[in-house]
Amino acid sequence: MDALDNLIFATSQSPLQSGERITSRFIKTPFDSFIPGLISTDSFNPVFGFSVPDKQTFTSYADNSIFDDAIQRHWYDINGNGIPGSFAEKFQYKWPGLGILSDFTQSSTYHLMYAYLIENTRILQIFEQLIEKYFNDEVFGIAPDSVCQWMLNSKKLFFKDESSGSGLVKPNSESSRRNAYYRMFGMDLAFDAPYYKAKTANLQFIPLFEKYLTEIWKGTDLNNLVLIASQLKEILKARRNLSLIEFKSVIMANWFAFIISENTDLVKFLNCQAPTIGDRLIKIGEKVGIPAHAKCQHFFEMAEAASNILNLIEIGTYLENSTNVKTMLSSLDRGTLPSINSDYMHSFLIVINNWEKATGHKIKNPDSDTI
Questions:
Q1: How far apart are CA 155 and CA 112, in angstroms?
Q2: 101, 136, 138, 181: most buried by Cβ count inside 10 Å?
Q3: Is residue 128 one of the residues assigned to a domain?
């Protein structure tokens, strides 16, 4: 499940210390009727999630105070629910009849790279401008109640003044996220804005990561692949002090990516229907006067796969074993049955193909004059 799916689970299924579920003091919460389902059959491991209508209902719920509790509850859940030691690593979201819905050692949108790639599309800046315009003008018309409530919830959760925030949902400003991206990856966003650029950052991440992707594509030097994976793990784990802003940034990025993942009620209200998430964002950007990144579709397409890969690198055990890596590299060969290895290899290929197209950096054949 993605971050938004997990917030729904935390709201309806993960009890507070009192034993009660998260609920509104004022209006009925409909979330108990939500049931997750299998949303992808393309992978060996089942991928579960709540329906788009359920997610729209959740994110446009009229009492936005529940989101504070849901995010706080989920933060403690993914950190082991307060269970000390190794037991914390075994905390999972489970559903009767479906089994494990989320195992937080490898959740698809829980690495800072996911937030970076999503924000690089300019989605957050576009929606901040959209929401600001909507509540100060009527240029877009009058939105249906659910769409208006979604924008109100989004404003209160993510775009209010930092001084007025509370708990884990106190908004982290764009400058704070930029600082985290730079420290973790040595990367700036594709569009300029002032922020404090730390003196200590993983400047070696991009050349090392791109070298790693090239070696995965070649698939010939297992020892070098194991070595680079180990090096990447060390520099990423050295920035684990960024875990809280990573969590907040991922929640924020996933919240906005969802609302244009299909032709949702908000997209229809804006008359920005399109066949792809990237085209929808480009249309909305044109409406508010902020152009989306021209390659935004590629950032969207690889965000979850890149998060999967970096989580796997940080775990360390699988990609630092040459036998595992060899098995993974051949897992998509004709006649090979689907497995967890083929899931991992599929994620690598998604990133390799889209990284080249999004950045213009040559991965498959770095010595060539063309991509």
A1: 22
A2: 181
A3: no
